[in-house]
Design a protein that fits this description.
The complex is a heterodimer of chains A (286) and B (134).
Chain A (H helix, E strand, L loop, with lengths): L2 H22 L4 H11 L4 H25 L5 H24 L2 H19 L6 H4 L8 H5 L4 E5 L4 E5 L4 H18 L4 H11 L4 H25 L5 H23 L4 H24 L5
Antiparallel strand pairs in A: 1-2
Helix pairs in contact in A: 1-2, 1-3, 1-11, 2-3, 2-12, 3-10, 3-11, 4-8, 4-10, 5-12, 8-9, 9-10
Chain B lengths: L3 H55 L13 H6 L3 H29 L3 H21 L1
Helix pairs in contact in B: 1-3, 3-4
Classes of the chains: A mainly alpha (286), B mainly alpha (134).
Chain lengths: 286, 134
């Protein structure tokens, strides 16, 4: 495949990753990395560096719309970013040292896990609603609880944030995966916020989208300094994602998305398997 | 007894009031962050497109490696396409950093010391990783 075709294909893939990423609250890296390694034949470390650039673009493009529309919980995002940026720096240094073989395996497993979390059913209005009971003292002291407006059913939902310490820990882990594998880590953070911390799904997606850009910036500069960021690939990804997120974020706000999510989950599971299967057929340096 | 129509209007009014309350509470900071994030991506895309125009004009090869920040200025002044493509990518990497920096300022402005501190830690983390770059 000549370089120009590869660049155009990459821009198209980045567009789709941008739509999917902003729609589902993930960085789009889980789509881009298999595409770059399996279809374009790039080395996985170049793919990771390029994907991080895409994650920042997804986050900045989509998150800005969510912030404007008050879906994002800014305080919660800042709180969790303390953990995720630290994790991302560690993850990036680790990622530079680890042989490619292990990156393939880890990536495949992580993507399979992402597929399983995405296959879950979306919440109903009843589940979004405010829960009674004692608020966690830390959550109260930090003022993490918030409100958001849901366009789907025109409801204003007040919610409180539960288990802040556990969420903090999960964010650190998500940060490590982000730096290590070049993904946003949204598929770890969104379920954690939604199920563990009891943040309504749309607010969780928006907050995750907001966070992944900062997390990815922490590791992207490390990959850049190692000369792993190819500016041509980077440019294609930024332009593709920029246009894709615009569409995706507008879809998400009005969405009833369970079918789409399920389709994506199947697609993701296929990609994860493909990454692992590839190891069996090609010589990736150990 | 109230009719269905006026009942509906009551509910709609209630929603509108609640929504306005939500909006005014967070308006200023959210607007600023929106503009920074969007602006950063737009500038980055603009610089990249300029780089591609230069590339087409000079008829050079598509670059396959990035330019280190310290040698970037020389490249930019010579209007090298490689330099502008690298700059576009760097602008994007810097966008979240600027956003976090502005958040520190806005929390200080609100005298919210806990969040100013937390945001400052995030900024220190980001600057640490940027020092590797420089």
């Amino acid at each position: 495949m000549d370089l120009l075709t590869a660049l155009v294909l990459l821009a198209v893939a980045a567009f789709l990753a941008g739509v999917a990423g902003s729609y589902l609250g993930i960085g789009g890296g889980v789509f881009l990395i298999p595409f770059m390694t399996l279809a374009l034949g790039l080395s996985i470390k170049i793919a990771i560096a390029t994907s991080l650039i895409g994650v920042i673009a997804t986050s900045s493009g989509a998150a800005s719309v969510y912030v404007r529309d008050h879906l994002t919980n800014l305080r919660l995002a800042m709180f969790l970013e303390v953990a995720s940026t630290l994790g991302a720096i560690l993850g990036a240094f680790f990622g530079l040292l680890v042989p490619e073989f292990y990156l393939y395996i880890t990536f495949g497993l992580v993507v399979l896990y992402a597929a399983s979390t995405m296959a879950r059913v979306r919440e109903t209005a009843r589940q979004r609603a405010y829960r009674t009971g004692e608020e966690s003292p830390l959550s109260k002291r930090l003022g993490l609880s918030s409100v958001y407006f849901d366009q789907e059913d025109q409801g204003v939902y007040r919610y409180r944030v539960e288990r802040p310490v556990a969420g903090f820990g999960v964010s650190a882990v998500a940060g490590v995966f982000s730096g290590l594998l070049g993904i946003g880590g949204g598929f770890i953070k969104v379920p954690a916020m939604n199920m563990l911390m009891r943040v309504p799904m749309k607010a969780a997606v928006a907050t995750s989208n907001f966070m992944i850009g900062v997390t990815a910036a922490a590791s992207a500069s490390i990959y850049y300094s190692e000369g792993l960021v190819n500016p041509s690939y980077g440019a294609m990804v930024i332009i593709g994602v920029f246009t894709g997120t615009y569409l995706g974020s507008h879809l998400m706000e009005k969405a009833k998305a369970s079918n789409v999510r399920f389709a994506f989950a199947l697609f993701l599971a296929g990609l994860g398997l493909a990454m692992i299967v590839r190891l069996a057929f090609t010589g990736v340096p150990l | 007894m109230i009719g269905a129509r006026s009942g509906l209007r009551l509910v709609q009014d209630r929603i509108a009031t609640l929504r306005r309350a939500v909006v005014t509470e967070v308006e200023d900071r959210n607007r600023l962050i929106y503009h920074v994030l969007r602006g950063g991506v737009v500038i980055s895309v603009g610089v990249l497109l300029f780089g591609f125009v230069l590339l087409a004009a000079t008829g050079g090869e598509v670059p396959d490696h990035s330019i280190a920040p310290r040698s970037l200025i020389g490249q930019l002044s010579r209007f090298s396409p490689d330099g502008y493509l690298s700059l576009g990518v760097l602008v994007l990497i810097f966008t979240p950093v600027v956003r976090v920096f502005l958040s520190v300022l806005s929390f200080i402005d609100e005298r919210d010391s806990k969040y100013a501190l937390m945001t400052a830690i995030v900024l220190v983390n980001l600057i640490t990783s940027l020092l590797v770059l420089a």
